[in-house]
Amino acid sequence: MKTKNERLTTIWNLVNDYAPDNQEKLLELLRTKGFNITQATLSRDIKQLKIIKSPNAEGNYIYITTGQNIYANRYNGKKEKSNLSFTGFISLEFSGALAVMKTRPGYAMGIASDIDLCIPHLILGTIAGDDTILLVPREGVDRKKIKETLEILIPAAKTEN
Amino acid sequence: MKTKNERLTTIWNLVNDYAPDNQEKLLELLRTKGFNITQATLSRDIKQLKIIKSPNAEGNYIYITTGQNIYANRYNGKKEKSNLSFTGFISLEFSGALAVMKTRPGYAMGIASDIDLCIPHLILGTIAGDDTILLVPREGVDRKKIKETLEILIPAAKTEN
DNA sequence: AAAATAGGTGCAAATTTATACAATTATTAA
DNA sequence: TTAATAATTGTATAAATTTGCACCTATTTT
Fold this sequence. Notes:
homodimer, alpha+beta, Arc Repressor Mutant, subunit A, Gyrase A, domain 2, 5 helices, 36% helix, 20% strand, DNA-binding
């Protein structure tokens, strides 16, 4: 019998190739590849692979993989823990609807990317140079919320009160 | 009674703030905000908002929003349609395990970004300059597959046969 | 204005997915 | 090697989610 790892790899590839709309379909595909498991096990595999069922453009549901595990690090609003430890942070200041973050040289792109990844619901987008990031908050998101959230994500920002 | 749009906005915000683990929980939150709907309607709203249920780091399921609708454009392997129309593409050539794409000046970053977004299962990553993109394919993904897929996504690449 | 079409919703049922439990197998520690 | 612990899985079931249908309301067309 094939190993579990082989099965997980196969599942991953099948999802990418077929974007099945439910687990039964995927299960059939798996059988054609010689993997005989139950729906229960598939459900567990899917959870482990962080494969998700997503509404697509056509109004249907499909299973898709999440590339680089985009969501694994997304901040979920719980204060308990942040698995990110930004480095390079220097300061955060606001001007009108915008915010500007200063970083150590070369860190701007990386940190901006992390921000895009973690709090897209607060920040519409970022533009990073070498040591400066322009943050464009979403409409209706106030400075306080952004400041508080970043203080959780970036320990170094805590001293900035 | 509040409008549907107000409701959708509220749902979006509640999901971001509470990352609820099922629709019933979210339904309760909605009630506290004065929206009285059934779970069926919530299910439809969630679909419309492209909110997804995702396994998180702790091994649980939570509902999360998808920022900029990351998945809306992800290529799902079906040939029928591509809703992307890249511009600026010039050429694609391979060298060893790598591929190099040439673009019109200034387009490299944008196209590279689109590639990252659309075919992360084929391409491990890209590095873009101003008019050149280095593509690093995933192990086991062959040139043919990449070429074929890009030809679907980038009409201009079709003439490159 | 009337008719036609589209959008929105609840209800109930069907479908789909997750999981408690028990059993089995693999791994690690003693 | 044996005991202890951790992983893996199927079965059956519970839980969760989606959807067909009917009805109602809003919008558009004639």
